[in-house]
Design goal:
With about 475 residues, this protein is of the alpha/beta class. Helix content is about 40%, strand content about 20%. It has two domains: about 1-250, 3-Layer(aba) Sandwich (Rossmann fold), CATH 3.40.50; about 255-470, 3-Layer(aba) Sandwich (Rossmann fold), CATH 3.40.50.2000. It has helices at about 20-35, 110-115, 125-145, 165-170, 190-200, 210-215, 225-235, 250-255, 265-285, 305-315, 330-345, 360-370, 385-390, 405-410, 430-455, 455-470, 475-480; strands at about 1-5, 40-45, 50-55, 60-65, 75-80, 85-95, 100-110, 155-160, 175-180, 190, 205-210, 220, 240-245, 290-295, 320-325, 350-355, 370-375, 395-400, 415-420.
């Protein structure tokens, strides 16, 4: 049995994710079910989901997204101890073949219910700490009661917030999976919380969760080869434990069925044009005779959504732009960019914006697209998977040299590359770098458009289709994780 703990999880029956981590963990769940791997993934159930946005007086205002238990099965209730009080939780599950998704719903007391109401949103540091204490204690309790530790082959902890479980249960094959090189991927808490809850008088102040996790785990995993150097630069004393397993996508979940088994660029063109028209119609987009360019993902500064906005202003060809994504409500830059995306869609007839990217909407956007944009500030993206999902559908990307892109994309062969390949975190407000890289980005988009006009595009698209299905399949990831 594989046991994985994650702060978020994107499966089809709940609204329990914010971005790429949740979608990746959902892909692992469905892949485990398909491949017959005994797999249990445990997360919190967030009654208010992540975040939705409504418009008030022309402004975007965050609101509860909402969630549902309707398609989950309650299998038990348990009592945990946290903050010196009794915390009651219920375990709801969703099963697919050999895979089980466990959602921990907090029932009482009120402070614990409040702390776990929303994903990645807390009012105080104490709320944030106890949210993940509850997840850790519930996960260990669930495994003890419903799985049995003797059956657990790997105990995988997704992101640093989950490493609190190692205070409660050590495992010889416990592994911390680090999904971001950025500072927010290494959250901290005041040491007093650990003294109050666990009785430990830790030597560091504040306490860095990734440091604790790497110290207690048998191994640290990063999600691209490039990320090894970044992680070792931050935690050099744990570098001997850190190895890469590059992310992948669950191809049956993301690939359009009509694209299966294409044997040539001509076959791909015929199938993709049909798929594209169906997806555009489903999205309500008119793009007859036009190239569709898309930028869709979580909106935050390091992903450089402003590149897409500037491109809309600068490209003078017959194109349609699809924009998608939402920001964390505390990310002022991200919320501002949402407003700019919204204004562009309202004022330009060739721009469409989809703020809420559930899996079904994201699939339709990918299927409707001709050129995918992947624009992170190099050094800040751990892996990225949107370009993988595009590539397995024969949609090539114009991509910055970051994350897993550099492992697969060959410029002009199965996509187009721009910018420097940086292996350190430079400031995101580096205007000179942005200006220089935007100029190359725009030039590469023009190259892609020229290739589309000449017909050479379909050779590039077919190369992406072939190489991405080989490099980014879940079978490869499962073997490297030791699941198969």
């Amino acid at each position: 049995m594989i046991v994985s703990i994650t702060p978020e999880l994107a499966i089809d029956v709940v609204k329990n994710f914010a971005g790429g981590l949740g979608v990746l963990e959902g892909d692992k769940f469905y892949a485990a079910a398909r491949l017959g791997v005994p797999y249990t993934v445990i997360t919190l159930f967030y009654p208010d989901g992540y975040v939705s946005y409504r418009e008030e007086n022309g402004e975007l205002v965050p609101a509860a997204e909402g969630n549902t238990l309707d398609n989950l099965t309650k299998i038990g209730t348990s009592e945990l101890a946290a903050r010196g009080e009794r915390v009651v939780v219920s375990y709801y599950v969703y099963r697919a073949g050999t895979a089980t998704a466990v959602f921990v719903k907090v029932e009482s007391p009120e402070w614990a219910v409040k702390a776990t109401r929303r994903l990645y949103q807390e009012d105080t540091e104490a709320e944030r700490f106890y949210k993940y204490v509850i997840l850790a204690k519930a996960a260990v309790d669930y495994v003890e009661k419903f799985v049995g530790w003797e059956k657990v082959k790997f105990f995988d902890l997704q992101e640093a917030y989950t490493v609190l479980a190692l205070f409660l249960k050590r495992h010889e094959n416990a592994r911390v999976v680090i999904h971001t090189p950025a500072p927010w991927g290494h959250p901290t808490f005041h040491k007093r919380f650990f003294k109050d809850e666990f009785g430990f008088d830790l030597a560091m102040e504040p306490v860095v969760l990734t440091e604790l996790g790497l110290a207690m785990a048998s191994r640290g995993i990063v999600v691209s080869k490039k990320m090894v150097k970044l992680a070792c630069n931050t935690f050099p004393h744990h570098c001997h434990k850190i190895t890469p397993v590059t992310n992948a996508v669950e191809i049956p979940r993301w690939a359009h069925p009509k694209l299966e088994g294409v044997k040539s660029a001509d076959d791909l063109k015929k199938a993709r044009l049909q798929v594209r028209e169906e997806a555009l119609a489903a999205l309500g987009i008119e793009a007859r005779g036009k190239v569709v360019i898309s930028w869709a993902r979580r909106i935050t500064r390091y992903k450089r959504p402003h590149f897409a906005l500037q491109l809309i202003e600068d490209v003078n060809r017959d194109t349609v732009f699809i924009l998608g994504g939402r920001a964390h409500p505390a990310d002022h830059y991200g919320v501002e960019m949402m407003g700019k995306f919204k204004n562009a869609a309202e004022n330009m007839e060739n721009v469409y914006y989809f703020p809420h990217l559930d899996v079904e909407t994201m699939k339709k956007i990918i299927w409707a697209t001709d050129i995918w944009l992947f624009t992170p500030f190099s050094g800040w993206e751990a892996s990225g998977t949107s370009f993988m999902k595009a590539g397995i559908n024969g949609v090539p990307s114009v991509a910055s040299r970051d994350g897993a892109v550099v492992e697969a994309v060959v410029d002009g062969q199965n996509g187009w590359l721009f910018g420097e390949d940086r292996d350190r975190l430079l400031p995101l407000d580096s205007a000179e770098i942005d200006e220089r890289e935007y100029r190359e980005f725009r030039r590469k988009v023009e190259e892609a458009l020229d290739a589309y006009a000449s017909g050479r595009y379909w050779d590039v698209a077919f190369n992406a289709y072939l190489t991405f299905r080989e490099k980014f399949a879940m079978e490869r990831l499962f073997k490297e994780y030791g699941y198969l």
